[in-house]
Amino acid sequence: MESINIHSSGPAFSRVITGAWRWQSLSAHEVDALINASLDQGITTFDHADIYGNYSCEALFGKSLHRNSSLRGQMQLVTKCGIKLQSEKWPGTWINHYDNTHDHIVSSVNNSLKNLQTDHIDLLLLHRPDPLMDPAEVAQAFSLLKQSGKVLHFGVSNYSSTQFEMLREYTHDPLVTNQIEVSLFRHHLLFDGTVDTLMKHQVCPMAWSPLAGGKLFPESPDSDLIHRQVGEMAARYSCNISQLMLAWLLKHPSRMLPILGTTNPARVEEGAKAMNIQIDRQDWFALLRIARGRDVD
Ligand SMILES: NC(=O)c1ccc[n+]([C@@H]2O[C@H](COP(=O)([O-])OP(=O)(O)OC[C@H]3O[C@@H](n4cnc5c(N)ncnc54)[C@H](OP(=O)(O)O)[C@@H]3O)[C@@H](O)[C@H]2O)c1
Question: Residue 194 to residues 76, 180, 199, 218, 238: CA-CA distances in angstroms?
């Protein structure tokens, strides 16, 4: 598996990433198996957020790192902060909201470090744009976390072009990614300037829900036809449909990094193998046509 610098200042991440959003009900054995299946494939980067699994997934992962002390040195950890969900674990939160204040960012990182049982986070992302965010306060929090060695790199998630441009004017450290929702059937951010802005700043996007959360295809009267057409192309490339969808993302020149959401070690292996599929330019557009239901103009 290729490892790339997602920005000129780093970090170096595996081109395909494993995400822990859906790991809430996994046993310790299953968590270990997913981590090992990823590392076996050269997937060394793991995506988390404080809120995943009702604030439980980071700790599940951290327990695995504690059980297997050699693991942490073989991987990079991404986590996120800034969403506050109603939960019995946070009784003071009575409404779901965003909080990108200095104090919340710092305390969230401290919690994540404790839960993940590590002394540093490789990349911290602001999970969502917070309309009440003071960018100067965010910059101060990032600087403090950087100086203390608790966080090595910073980025954002679900930011528009202008939100990305705005925040990067304030932070001392560069924003090294924007983690966005992109898949074959949800590709509008490739065309609305979001990805162009990242390319302008030589920042690689991370792609969440690269298989549309397992739905693969949108519900539509044409879904049988779409399924058949994508399936025929997958057969031509000797791969399955989900691998073809990942290869479609991997061909994009922004060098985006798909985050696999599967809880099945065999599908981790399948996903990693998508790296070996080189989609022809015209086939890339043929898939776009299938997804859009029309040719390019
Ligand atoms: N930044 C954000 O706001 C944000 C939001 C959402 C997610 N994320 C990150 O992105 C990661 C990936 O998101 P995601 O979980 O939605 O990714 P995804 O890979 O699009 O979807 C994963 C789901 O698809 C199923 N699946 C995988 N392959 C399949 C196949 N061939 N056929 C049918 N179902 C299949 C999986 O089931 P099995 O487990 O049974 O394989 C799992 O339920 C998350 O773990 C998280 O780290 C970030």
Answer: 25, 9, 9, 22, 32
